[in-house]
Specification:
2 domains; WalR-like; 52% helix; Rossmann fold; Arc Repressor Mutant, subunit A; 200 residues; Response regulator transcription factor; DNA-binding
């Protein structure tokens, strides 16, 4: 039996994923969460084989959560599920330790098959064109991309620090590093560059 944990912030979507996967032969949903802090609290006890993570979670995004899980729960493989079809996100997901990247447009059977493949040690990227396009890796670290993504959403330095449980100085340093690595003149320019390449 493949044990799956679902992390999705939209309640109706999460309920649908749980019902869909629980109805599949050989798959059991052992837990679910609406955000990363809740997931981190519950995942270890649930002991899943596969964590199905939405990329666009509030606070810590799914990519940062995948990275965190890679060392907190090393026996759990992660599968990203998203509406974002940007090649840069595929590379970031793989860099964060994910074993798969799926668009939410896939069929229920394709999702179940991807869970089975990832559980068996495989890697799944759908649609396949995304795997081919995922060439240019981001120059940003996972943490730099995380603070830049929150800044892009309108959060100021203090709000980002509170969201990620970091010091304000640490957030400023990461934002400054991101601006420098992207050869941007301002934070706004850095956000535009990162969004255009699918790095945040």
């Amino acid at each position: 039996m493949i044990r799956v944990f679902v992390v999705e912030d939209m309640h109706v979507v999460r309920a649908g994923l749980v019902a869909l996967l629980d109805g599949e032969f050989g798959i059991e949903v052992v837990g679910n969460a609406a955000d990363a802090p809740e997931a981190l609290t519950r995942l270890s006890d649930a002991e899943p084989d596969v964590a199905l993570l939405d990329i666009d979670l509030p606070g810590m995004d799914g990519l940062a959560l995948a990275h965190e899980l890679s060392w907190r729960v090393p026996t759990c493989r992660t599968l990203m599920l998203t509406a974002l079809d940007r090649a840069g996100h595929v590379q970031r997901a793989l860099d964060a330790g994910a074993s798969g990247y799926l668009l939410k447009t896939l069929s229920p059977q394709e999702l179940a098959n991807a869970v089975r493949a990832v559980s068996a040690g495989g890697r799944v990227i759908e649609p396949a064109e995304l795997a081919e396009l995922a060439g240019a890796a981001t120059p940003l670290t996972l943490r730099e991309a995380e603070v830049l993504r929150l800044a892009a959403g309108g959060a100021d330095t203090r709000a980002i620090a509170a969201d990620l449980f970091l010091g304000v100085g640490t957030v400023r340093n990461r934002l400054s590093a991101a601006v420098g690595k992207l050869h941007a003149r301002t934070l706004v320019d850095a956000i535009r560059i990162a969004e255009r390449h699918g790095w945040i």
